[in-house]
């Protein structure tokens, strides 16, 4: 039973005598498979070849590719090599036995994946199954820990030793690394509709759990392999439900077929329509948080990230475009990526699959799964397979099948394992040195520490600390007061994030502001400076002050009810992160809040307390609500919304308006419709699922506001009077019924537009704003044909951070100071409105705080409109040119958007 292990059955796995015995049946199987009308049933279970057949991608590949002579994979599928693999253990269940279908014959559902992983873990002492969380929809997030039985017995010790290379690198010698297994995290299909990766994960698990032979054994002995088969099970289920549900008994390759065209929003994203492959750094979603937790417990040397791309492409693996590698990533990282890539090339050569490297994809934004490891001493590798989307798909190069795509992903999974075995000590040393050489890497960095104030915005400062904590960053209290950037940072009221710590290189990359770039094309955003995003007072200091106690627990701190139980009113100051949730909590309990539009002072506990605009007054004696219930709700607000509430026993105030002021409006509960879907256009038109999802997540998940997702094509039939607030979160809205919406606004509705959605109300003439023109063609005129793409790209804004100057007396800016960092994508700039009071925010004369911005676009942005609020009849249109809710980590500007939701009605 030992020979070259290839999955070409005629010369495989088994001794020549056995081969003779089985060759016929195998070939007859293959032939019948080619005929396509024959069932793709496997051979008799008695056959010892059944075990190889369990690697169904290959066999099934034949079944599915057979009918139309695609030429793409037919001859190759017959000769798929599985290097260094002799046989498979009967005691380990095959995917078919557990799941009920051959891998590749249909799209495997998340629950089936979990069931298979459970079954293998139960049967194999090479495999442990671990759960690292639940998705929003309650699906289990699992990963398997796969290694030799010897390693399994010493797993804790291996894990501890592996972590030491990161946490105490100078104490780890080359000899220490000699006999230690590497750790590789094989991660798959973070985009739920890029489904082939997960199928390959199933095959990899079977291969490692059941296989024997020199390469399998080498992989088990030399590596601890963490197989995370589904980074995004909610998205996968949405997608799989669609493809499996729209396929008949005979799969069709027609790209216009329903099976190939999932409806908006598709399965790419998570429950709230976020791209999880941007969330590795912000870490705002449960799946990212659970994954980071085990990532850092292990500190893998290699992490794979399997994706799919357009159907006309071939196969891509990193390294990508060299000039688009983040400058904080060491060169050696790219060199090792290149050496690993040689193995992918070899393995794909063997099965005849075309591929490419060093083009298209970058390695810049640390929020992506293939780039995040690069700032953690690890090697992240992006794989992109041309997508068959459904089971078969016509392309200009012939038919592309799901099994073919699975096979490629499986082969590069194996080549990754081979590379980890062969480069094991290089990878271990590289990671150790990444952490050991921190000082050297940071020697040109002037910053020694970041200081973050937590007194003005305690919840936002702690939300930032929570993110840093998820990345194993250490934070410390200050030992003494420090003056920097015009702010005094005080012990107990601030924390310090020093670069002199194991995660120092990460700290720099996550916190710094950037303005110079080796390349001007960005696959994603050009900056993500976390202190700016969280809107906290902060400073980068070149001398780290003496540090106090380590900040151990970054969870939010409850507020208090200052002054105890009141029989008259409570006052909630405005501006803390969860104050809008506090107001919503009042609404949800039928308690009517009033908003104060002028500053005032009030007597609290015998002393004078001042309140800014936006303070919420809660009268204790309200019709229809028992005072006791008001006290309870106020108590919960302090505890769970983390804001202080003040008991005020007199309506007459020492300064400013009295509490029953004519200018203090009673707030209605927001009744919010978010416009979603594609309307009458194609599935690629209409609203932006990302932007709509950000609003949905903010309101429904964080702020307890019930929202209605209303499809664009249903708006014309909808009873709009059910809503007082409508959000156009991004995208194009040509299918909206203009008259209906305008009438609804004129009757008192608040229409909120975000990013490119601001165009619709402007185009409809509801708001009068002048767009600034920039003739980009004339700017790129002198460029050669080959340089044109770059020249146009250099005039784009893929995501930069601007400074917006606010009018803090405007209700949309209540709770804010005079300036705020905002996140901006796109180049549509408008002059601020001439209408008095309508211009809530404009970009600063020096607009850029961080990120890429060309000189010409800087000119365009100077003083341009950032936030506009226009009265239209009895209602209002509020426009955010930026994205205040970007990727759920822009805590600093969420408040502006929430002001529009809660206070739009008082404009
Ligand atoms: Zn993808």
Estimate the strand proportion: 15-25%
In percent, how helical is the residue content? Answer: 25-40%
- The domain count comes to 4
Identify the bound ligands.
zinc ion
Coarse shape: globular
Over all CA atoms, what is the radius of gyration? 30 Å
CATH class (first level) name of the largest domain: Alpha Beta
For the biggest sheet, the summary is: 9 strands, mixed
The CATH topology label of the largest domain is: Aminopeptidase
Strand elements, count? 35
Question: Which structural class do the helices and strands define?
Answer: alpha+beta
What is the correct CATH architecture of the largest domain? 3-Layer(aba) Sandwich
**In whole angstroms, how far apart are the ends?**
81 Å
Number of separate helices? 29
Major sheet: arrangement of strands: 28-27-29-30-35-34-33-31-32
Q: What is the arithmetic mean of pLDDT?
A: 90
Instruction: Give the CATH superfamily of the largest domain.
Output: Zn peptidases
